[in-house]
Design brief:
By secondary structure, the protein is α+β, with helices and mostly antiparallel strands. Helices cover 24% and strands 25% of the residues.
């Protein structure tokens, strides 16, 4: 991967476009989830998208359930 992912970021999920959702292990306690864009370079400060893993996961699950409800639970 270019540029290299900083060592303090622990990948959780690829968004399908080379961007990554990661845990930022620089903080004490529960690490926040951040969005890392490889096109922004190694010196970027990734944007925080959730205060911790559970908040991020809950938001992802709720979004998927809402989208499923809009399509009636059928694959499109």
């Amino acid at each position: 991967m270019r540029p290299a992912l900083p060592r303090h970021l622990i990948p959780l999920m690829n968004d399908g476009g080379d961007n990554l959702y990661c845990l930022d292990s620089r903080r004490e306690g529960e690490p926040p989830v951040v969005f890392w864009d490889p096109t922004a370079g190694e010196t970027q400060e990734p944007a925080q998208v959730a205060s911790d893993f559970m908040a991020w996961l809950t938001e992802r699950v709720e979004r998927e359930l809402a989208e499923e409800g809009q399509t009636g639970g059928q694959d499109t």
